[in-house]
Amino acid sequence: MKSLVFVLVTLFAMGAHAEKKYGTGAKFTDAMPMSKIMKNPESLVGKEVTVSGVIVDVCAKRGCWMKLTTDYQNEKVRVKVNDGEIVFPLESRGKKAAAKGEFKKITMTLEETKDFLKHQAEENKLKFDPASVKEAMVVYQVQATGAVIEGN
Question: pTM of this prediction?
Fold first, then answer.
């Protein structure tokens, strides 16, 4: 009987840490803390990085992006994929993920910033006042080619 309990506990523990690979995959051990990336983000623009964190949001329309928690100023990192190439499941929220890809800098005009924020508000069913936006945004994101999500 003790052997059966041990086997069940072992199987449960193995299942709890199972990872599902998306695209080319990624390794948690390769992840760089966002606090390190954001010390000098310009030096990493155009280079491959791996980030990890807990998934706090997923694109509800196409699963084409997810946001991960980071250790940098309570910020989230956006992981974007080409539409249709990888689809992150909505039920991944709350699970740990790692993603690798090109670190990109997106410099928006004021109008692009308003459009971007309006789109985000619509996706999250929130009210948005374009007049509240006074300056353009710079966004850093990972254009992912691969990811892994634990317990998925």
Answer: 0.79
Please report, for the chain, the start and end positions of each structural domain, with discontinuous segments joined by +: 20-150
pLDDT per position in the chain (152 positions), as tens? 444 333 333 334 444 458 999 999 999 999 999 999 999 999 999 999 999 999 999 988 888 999 999 998 888 999 999 988 999 999 999 999 999 999 999 999 999 999 999 988 887 788 999 999 999 999 999 999 999 999 86
The class of domain 20-150 in CATH terms is mainly beta
User: What are the DSSP calls for 65-131, one per residue?
Assistant: EEEEE-SSTT-EEEEE--TTT----GGGTTSEEEEEEEEEEEE--HHHHHHHHHHHHHHTT----GG
